[in-house]
Each structure stands twice: as C-alpha cells, then as structure tokens.
Amino acid sequence: MKKKTKKVNAAILIIGNEILSGRTQDKNVSFISKWLNSNCGISVSEVRIIPDVEKEIINNIKLLSKKFNYVFTTGGIGPTHDDITAQSLAKAFKLKYGFHKEAYKILESYYGKKKFNDGRKKMAKMPISSKLIYNPSSAAPGFMTKNVFSLPGVPSILNSMIENCKRYLVKGLKVHSKTINLFTVESNISKELGNIQKKYNKFVEIGSYPFFRLGKIGVSVVTRSTYKLKLGQVNKELLNLVKSKKIKILKI
Amino acid sequence: MKKKTKKVNAAILIIGNEILSGRTQDKNVSFISKWLNSNCGISVSEVRIIPDVEKEIINNIKLLSKKFNYVFTTGGIGPTHDDITAQSLAKAFKLKYGFHKEAYKILESYYGKKKFNDGRKKMAKMPISSKLIYNPSSAAPGFMTKNVFSLPGVPSILNSMIENCKRYLVKGLKVHSKTINLFTVESNISKELGNIQKKYNKFVEIGSYPFFRLGKIGVSVVTRSTYKLKLGQVNKELLNLVKSKKIKILKI
After folding, report:
1. Which of A251, B140, B194, B239 is the most buried (most CB within 10 A)?
2. In what order do the strands lie in the sheet with B176-183?
C-alpha cells in the first residue's frame, strides 16, 4: 500500500512558569493539536512545558526543531522581563536579534507614535530574518523562525492567529478518527482489542479510554488512521466484537 | 542568606496519544503541580507529553529520572494493549517485570477469583520491586519504581491516589506565592517590573500575565519565592509602583 503524501509531525513547546506551577490551566496544546490535524494533516508527536529560563528554551528549540518537521512555541513574546522567547530563538539558531522592520511598523501604527513605549517596542524585537504571523486581536505579531512558529500564551489571542500560520505549513496526510463509546469495562474487551490492534498494527492506532457518564462506567474506543478504508475495516470488527459481547453503545 | 532545607524538583511525564491528539484536555499537570507544591514543597520543573510508544517512554524515563528528584508519570497502567507504562519502566531501569504479589492479591480480592480475568491480571504486572501506591477508587494500584511514581491517566482516580504518594516523598522548601491583579497593560509596568526582578533576582520570581475580565484588560503579577520575607518586600515595592502609576487593583 503506497501512501499518497508523507506524514508531517510537530512538537509544541509551552514556555511559562504559570503553566508549570499549575496556576494556569493550559488550553493551547489541545487547540493547536486539533487545529493542526484537521486543517493541515499534521500530527503533534511531543509536547514539552518548560520554565522561562533561557538555557532551557534554547536547548529545547535546538532539539525539537531537529527532531520534528515543525515546532510551535507558546508564551514569552510579550513586553515584560520574563518574555524571552524571541531572544532565546535568536541564540538557538545564531541569528541576528533586533527590531523587525515590519513588526515595528505594525506596532507603531497600532499604538501611535506617542504611546509606543519601550515595553511595546520590545514586541518588535526578534530574529530579524523571521517571517511574521499576523495578530488580528492585539497587533503584536508572532513569528516563524526556520521551522519554529512562536505564538503568544493567551489562548484567545493565539486562537485568532493560528490561521495565519497556514501559509507557511506544508500539509501532510489527514488523520481520520472514529470513536465508539461502550458501556463496558476495559478488561472485558482488552484481549480482543489487542488482537485487532495487532492485525492492523501498521495502519490503525487503537486507543481505549475509560469514562464515567451519568453514574455509569464506560470505555471510549478511539481509532485513528491516515487510511480511511482500513479505519472502516477496524470499526467493522469492533462493532462485531461489541455485538458478540452484547455491549451497549452510548450514542452521543 | 542560608536556606533552611533544599529545593526539591520533579518532572511530569504524561503518556497518552489522546492528550497529544487534543481529543482529551489534560487536567493532571495542574493538579499534580499544585498538590506537590502546597503539600510537599516540590516544584515541577518540566512536563512532557509523549505517545504510547515504548521507546519514547523508556528514553524519557531514563532522562527525566536522572535530571530531576522525582518523576510522575500518568497514563498507560490499565488493562489494554496500549497500556505499556509498567513494562517500559522495567526496561528503562533493567528491572524484573512480572506479577507484583501484593498488587495481585489486592486485585484478586477486589474482583473475586471468578472475574479476575487476564486484562485485570495485567494491572498487577510491573517491576516486581516497585512499591505500591494504593488506589481507593478502583483498586488497581499505582507504583513507585526508583524515583518514578506511576499513576493512572483518569483525573478522578489519580486525584484519589495522590495522597498515598506522600509517604515516599522527601519534602522541600515550600514556594510561597502572591498574585496582584491590576487594571493596566503589561507595557505600562514592564520596565519597572524588570527592575524589581533584577533587584530580587536570586530570591523572588516575578511573572506577568495578561487577563481579560468583565470586558476589561488587566495584568496578573505573580510573585513566587521560598523566602517569605523577600516576597513581602517585593510586594511592597509592587504596591508602591501601583500607587505611583495610579493603577486600580482588582479585588477578587
């Protein structure tokens, strides 16, 4: 079986002490991952959450940008002292760091010359060769440096910008997914699930996740594949299994 | 200034395709991190989210268990084929993998001999030298292997078990934290915040996070330190700054 196009993967690097300390609940991983998969056929293969520490940012950017097709960083591109993503990127890739002409213009015209203070000017500083990711919410642009996309940490702003990454991304094969929710326990189907997984190992990934709903215990069986046909075959086998075990399906 | 006790850190390793794909929103990072800090004075210094792939689990366990005092893994300890945390741990540390006698007994008595099928028996398999973390919700225990704590992925079950990790943990210095919510923009205070941070660099960590509330823009300034006195000093300086700039404080 020959694939139509190639698989494209990405890593997400969440930069921020507030996520690590548990003060802020991250929402960006789930959003970026779903967006990448459904819009670009790109799978997120690894996520890291690290503190606002230059050495950590540099090391992780170097490593992840080599290991994956793309890296998405979130956080650390605002005006304050703890926003050090841009300068760390420049150091990681040994690129010139300074005012990005276009970003400077955008911010100056947004704030007006009088209110364009040093903090705001800082948001125009980045590797000067970066490409901009426009920000319809609050002007300060994100930027693409080599294969790394740097976005802000605030979810509503990030969400408004993500479409502007699309033009820079090479698309991969879309991953299709299907979920069946069963009123049973995992151990009742674990053996058979394992056998089906073995049979389709190269093509389909089967995940099994317990749930609690309306006081009842259940299992969500999630199948994912770039091969739509194989996904259909696996789900047919799953439905046969469900029938033979007389398991009820939860319809949502 | 001499510290009373030492800093203790930890990493969290989230194992699960469902988190990476964005299908499931992770809630464990924030819970574990807050619990560790407030109950044990342990700071989470890094988080990784990786797929259910043996090689990835082994490599990350080896690396993180060396780099940090403790590692907390979540996910992959259930009865199905995609639950491979226990066997990967055994391989990472070159430990004997098999039925853990005590875990076997707990599960057998919970399910009853008749209903103790192969899937359920699998949950008693782990490095046989591991110490158990008891599970008041659903019996299947977590386990501590060297400095790695393996917990389930389902948040409600994990939450019910976390207290049972305490007996194994060496406590560190508690990190105190204070938040001031200001009705201003970051760039209005970024310079002064930077100066205060510089002055207290060794003792206090100052973070600045934009928020949107009731249609207004604001900044949460979060200060964190193991030194209560220094934290008080920084917050006094912050309040002076707020006063001099005539910034309103949001009282929650």
Report:
1. B140
2. B205-213, B216-225, B176-183, B248-250
For the stretch A44-60, what's the b/e string if a residue is b when 16 or more beta carbons lie within 10 angstroms of its beta carbon? Answer: bbbbbbbbbeeebbbeb
User: What's the CATH code of the domain at A121?
Assistant: 3.40.980.10
B16 contact residues in A (CB cutoff 8 A): 207
- B119 and B199 inside one domain: no
CA of A130 vs chain B CAs: smallest distance (Å): 23
- What's the pLDDT tens digit per position in B31-82? 999 999 999 999 999 999 999 999 999 999 999 999 999 999 999 999 999 9
Beta bridge partners of B135: B139
Which residues span the domain enclosing B155?
8-168
pTM recorded for the entire structure: 0.92
What tokens appear for A12 in the block? 């997400």
This complex has an ipTM of: 0.92
Euclidean distance between CA atoms A53 and B203, whole angstroms: 15
What is chain A's Cα-based Rg?
22
What does the alpha-carbon distance between residue B149 and residue A119 come to, in Å, rounded to a whole number?
Answer: 43
Which residues lie closer than 8 Å to A205 by C-beta, 6 or more apart?
A: A223, A224, A225, B17
What average pLDDT does range B205-216 have in this prediction?
A: 87
- CA A15, distance to chain mean position in Å, is 13
Instruction: Report the first-to-last Cα separation within chain B, whole angstroms.
Output: 34
Last residue within a domain, chosen from A168, A193, A220 = A168
Please count the structural domains in chain B.
2
Residues A79, A103: Cα–Cα separation, whole Å: 14
Would B3 be classed as within a structural domain? no
Whether residues A79 and B119 touch (CB distance < 8 A) is answered with: no
Which pair of tokens denotes residue A209? 């996740």
B36 and B155 share one domain: yes
Segment A65-85, tens digit of pLDDT: 999 999 999 999 999 999 999
Strand partners, B233: none
**What are the tokens at A124?**
């125009």
A-contacting residues in B 34-63 (Cβ below 8 Å)? 34, 37, 43-52, 56
